[in-house]
Amino acid sequence: MSEKLVFMVTHGLDHPEHVTIPFVMAVAALASDVEAVIGLQADAVELAVKGRPDSIAADGFPPLIKLMNDYRELGGKLLVCGPCAKSRHIDTVTQLVENAEVVAAARFVAELTSATNALTY
User: Fold this and answer.
1) CB atoms closer than 10 angstroms to residue 80
2) Is the whole-model pTM more than 0.90?
């Protein structure tokens, strides 16, 4: 994969379309042999908590949990803002889904500066 897309998500579970579209795009990218990374910041860190996105479905799209599972099965990682998770009292050792990785600003900067394109949702 020579191309890389980074999707930065800041919206939470109360914005189904904003949290669904980056997963649609990332799954399509990975299926097209384009590297895709999803970064979760602010309210979006809730997406990485086991069970929380299970009932989210935006009209006209597959359920979010299906897209998240597809993303994981295609090798996608979720980069979770550590300070954002901490401020929401999320236990990053026991509560996060298996493909979540807790990171800080430097990792986000590295991902973004190495990307072909970055999109924010």
Assistant:
1) 25
2) yes
